[in-house]
């Protein structure tokens, strides 16, 4: 499985693109249009727990660094991760964490979709975040603010509030904190998956499963 790669040029996170390969997306026929004013939120948010699924006391932690505009992240989340969730997260073996690492693959959507997702998490909870992420990644080839609103609504959130969060960067500081942590851990491509602090060779269900089994 390919990954989206960038060379990090500074602590501030300037990036230079290498090539991308592989795409995945759904049809836009189901996405409604939203007539939102998208007023700028009154406050920005600088701290928020990382979205997580599974038993907080699970013996193994799996951490995935992702960019919402990365096609390889879309494949990981929609095709590979469901196996990990069913076999390990739902069974109480693994605590799964999402970390944002906007490379950015796309200046608008790497940050915009992530901001909207963290807003859904902030208001509706971690499970809603992952519901948003699933819908968003299914439509990653056709991102628009309507897609962002649709993903939020599917997760039980307010589409117009999510669009405003995305447009105005309400959670930019939260994203940057995750990004900085990823850079410090040596992440140079998305998705990068860690099992108990060790990077997995490739972001596939098979490789991650092997790493989890070895850590048990």
From TrEMBL:
Belongs to the glutaredoxin family. Gene3D superfamilies: Glutaredoxin. Keywords: Electron transport, Transport. Coiled coil: none annotated. InterPro entries: TAT_signal (IPR006311), Thioredoxin-like_fold (IPR012336), Thioredoxin-like_sf (IPR036249). The keyword Transmembrane does not apply. This is Thioredoxin domain-containing protein. Residues 51-214 form the Thioredoxin-like fold domain. The lineage of its organism: Archaea, Methanobacteriati, Methanobacteriota, Stenosarchaea group, Halobacteria. The keyword Manganese does not apply.
């Amino acid at each position: 499985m390919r990954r989206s790669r960038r060379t990090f040029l500074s602590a501030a996170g300037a990036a230079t693109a290498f090539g991308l390969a592989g795409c995945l997306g759904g049809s836009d026929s189901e996405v409604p249009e939203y007539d939102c004013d998208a007023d700028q939120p009154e406050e920005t948010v600088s701290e928020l727990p990382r979205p997580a699924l599974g038993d907080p006391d699970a013996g193994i932690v799996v951490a995935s660094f992702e960019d919402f505009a990365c096609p390889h992240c879309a494949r990981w989340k929609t095709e590979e991760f469901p196996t990990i969730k069913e076999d390990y997260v739902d069974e109480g073996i693994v605590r799964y964490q999402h970390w944002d690492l906007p490379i950015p693959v796309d200046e608008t959507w790497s940050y915009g979709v992530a901001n909207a997702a963290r807003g859904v998490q902030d208001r509706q909870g971690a499970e809603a975040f992952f519901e948003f992420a699933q819908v968003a990644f299914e439509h990653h080839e056709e991102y628009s603010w309507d897609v962002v609103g649709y993903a939020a609504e599917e997760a039980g959130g307010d589409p117009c509030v999510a669009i405003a969060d995305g447009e105005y960067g309400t959670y930019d500081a939260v994203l940057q904190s995750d990004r900085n942590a990823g850079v410090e851990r040596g992440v140079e491509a998305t998705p990068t998956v860690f099992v108990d602090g060790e990077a997995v060779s490739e972001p596939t269900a098979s490789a991650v499963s092997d790493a989890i089994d070895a850590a048990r």
